[in-house]
Sequence to fold (561 residues):
Amino acid sequence: MMKKLGLSVLLLGVALVAAWNFVAIPGSNSWSAEELQLINSLSIERLAPLPADPSNRVADLPAAAEFGHRLFFDTRLSGNGSIACATCHRPELMFTDAFQMAMGAAPGPRHTPSLVGLSHSPWYYWDGRKDSQWAQALAPLEAAIEHGIDRLQVARLIDSDSSYRQMYNALFGALPVIPATPLAASPLGDEREQINWNSLSGAQQNEVSRVFANLGKAIAAYERKLMPGAARFDAYARSIAASSELDQGDILSSNELAGLRLFIGKAQCVSCHNGPLFTNHEFHNTGVLSIAGQLPSMGRYDGIRTARSDPFNCLGEFSDAEQADCIELRFARDDNSLVGAQKTPTLRNVSWTAPYMHGGQLATLAAVLNHYNEAPLSMLSHNEAKPLALRPVERRQLEAFIRTLSAPLATEPKWLAPAVEFTQSN
Amino acid sequence: MLQKISLMALLLGLSLLTLHASEARRADLQSTTDSGISVEIYSQLSPLEINRIHSWKLVIHDAAGNLLSGAELTLTGGMPDHDHGIPTLPQFTERADAGVYSLQGIRFHMPGKWQIVLSITNAGETERVLIDFQL
Fold:
């Protein structure tokens, strides 16, 4: 008798565990007005036109995008002749690299983010230490672990390639005389490069830095072409615009719909991953474990300070903006709430861009959902996300929903491979 | 008159202060302090939306209904249900016309319930007014 009872308790337990893990609770079969509004706000059809970049005069000139396109894929823009932007930002991987940490001239300290739809963001890098896409593009060129080249050699490359020189002159006016010596010079380089930099006159330094900034502006014009395409979720959002019935044929499965309901409801993902790009472009501490072998990242707390002192920022002499245009930089928050805060990434195409987070700490979407479910304490400051108590089946539903956000880019194919002229002339 | 009063009551009840019949354009937000100072907020982005930095014009009248110039204003805010504030540091910049104040650099970054807290210091007295709204 006792044994029989024990067995049935055991069986009941097994059944309950199985149900907890696998059985979905049937949801309601329509959306509330608020849910409909949220779903609509995520649709790609609601994506606003690309915001102007007043700090970059050539941001929307086709000739600048053509020039930037060639620069983006050009490995001659590196110390060892083998690294281009596209080495790490690979078009076929939504401009990521599938590595946990970036691999340039040497291993890097951060995971490579996607560049898709990024031109909508006012801030760049995980910690937001750059306030424009053109200023961002300059940093990897001079980073020893990335391209490992310097602004003087980059300027000289433009001077020595007649087609580059033509493109440059047409956009920015005549290329100045580039000093023939020293070989390499930059205010940010190693000791030798800095000494060399200081051997140039102030006027020469200014001219070389201006050429360098202009190349960043051309690269940014190219990056503005990289836009996400309509995915299955968007087809669904469009289909329910007319009616609040949940079931719209078979655009989304019942699991995907349940995931969507969690995303905008109980799981609160939409707090930060909102708008048509599924990001608010803001900085949040989400308690992601610090990168092995590194101190926890100070995140945006340091990032905003770096951005303010960057000579290439919106208020700097190489920017085309008026002071009044630099609203984001002038009114940015810099307090303790930003300690350990990283920039919210887009979730568009995220199922194709593993691993995840600023250090590639989480290998799979399932691991990401476990992370949010637990909402571990942050090593620095506090985790803004709260534990979710999602059942395993709900986590799988959320993941299924996130997978409906992937689709080929809405970008002309010619931008997704090296420029044709370039492969011919090389 | 009666109609106006009941309209005000309705708006108060909803704590969603969005209408003001006397302006050509409706204020995006509005409220009145305990002592009767009225605040109307006209947003550059109307209706208000998340993720875009923008500016506001605030029109302030004293209890007698006259434009109130020369007050010191500060604005903070956040989401009462989450423990965070406005993601930018909006500032009152120039003072344009009489009773009109200009706020720059405001942005909201989450859908949901927001609250702004406006402090108005006039003639040595400081009053606070809370305005709730949904984004």
In short: The longest helix of chain A spans residues 202-223. DSSP finds 16 helices and two strands in chain A. Residues 422-426 of chain A have pLDDT under 50 and may be disordered.
